[in-house]
Design a protein that fits this description.
The chain is of the alpha+beta class and 237 residues long. Helix 1 crosses helix 2, helix 2 packs antiparallel against helix 6 and helix 3 crosses helix 5. Keywords: Membrane, Transmembrane, Transmembrane helix.
């Protein structure tokens, strides 16, 4: 179907054209109403108790701290499997989450083998407003602190040897993440126009298709049986 044939077909199916234009404009307008989401990520760093040999808790790294961080993360987030990303910098927004939260122990091992090198938990939150994101982040950090304290009390750790946590950055930083309204409206317009003219083309092709009439063959008359041979007296030679 050529361009002018499509134009003439659109004029013939003007009802479909008008309905498609209205639906496309409505879809384009709806894309401009999305204000995006609010996202925040913070790091909860696990600190070893200071000692004479290791006075700086921030620079002390051990396997025990990493294991403790992983155990606390599992306690707070639950027993569900943790989604593995190709990069530890992947975010919930990139995954398409618009309302939720996650706690992850950063895995730098890639897709072949896990490798946990830091006693840090990444806390991410996504919400519809900045206030909700900040409040949710504070609640999760409080749960992490409570879970760590309960874990150490159950293990009988003396308070002087407690592992502690600190948040970096200390103040909650919430970012608004949203796409380009112009691009969204343009893509919606292209999809709407394509769908409208596709429907018109399908209707035009169906209208031009010839109608096939089936003719039933007349039933054949039954074959007459061959005449029986005349019976008569049998003559022996």
């Amino acid at each position: 179907m050529k361009f002018w044939d499509l134009v003439r077909a659109a004029l013939r199916h003007w009802i479909v054209l008008v309905a498609g234009a209205v639906a496309t404009l409505g879809l384009m307008y709806s894309t401009t109403l999305d204000d995006g989401v609010f996202w925040s990520r913070t790091q909860v760093v696990f600190l070893a108790p200071p000692s004479a040999a290791y006075p700086n808790s921030l620079r002390t790294t051990s396997e025990d701290l990493i294991i403790t961080a992983g155990a606390v993360a599992k306690t707070v987030s639950g027993p569900d499997a943790v989604t593995k990303y190709a990069s530890p910098d992947a975010s919930l927004v990139g995954e398409g989450v618009r309302d939720g939260w996650s706690i992850r122990l950063p895995d730098t091992g890639g897709q072949w083998a896990p490798h946990f090198a830091e006693q840090v938990l990444y806390v991410e939150v996504v919400a519809a407003t900045a206030d909700k994101a900040a409040a949710r982040q504070g609640e999760i950090i409080a749960q992490i602190t409570e879970a760590l304290d309960r874990l150490q009390r159950d293990a009988g750790v003396a308070p002087v040897n407690d592992i502690t946590v600190t948040v970096a950055p200390e103040s909650t930083v919430v970012h608004q993440v949203k796409g380009s309204r112009g691009r969204s409206a343009g893509m919606a317009g292209v999809l709407g126009v394509a769908a409208t003219f596709t429907v018109i083309a399908v209707l035009e092709i169906r209208g031009r298709r010839p109608v096939m009439h089936r003719h039933r063959a007349a039933p054949r008359p039954p074959r007459s049986a061959p005449p029986a041979p005349a019976s008569g007296p049998r003559t022996d030679p």
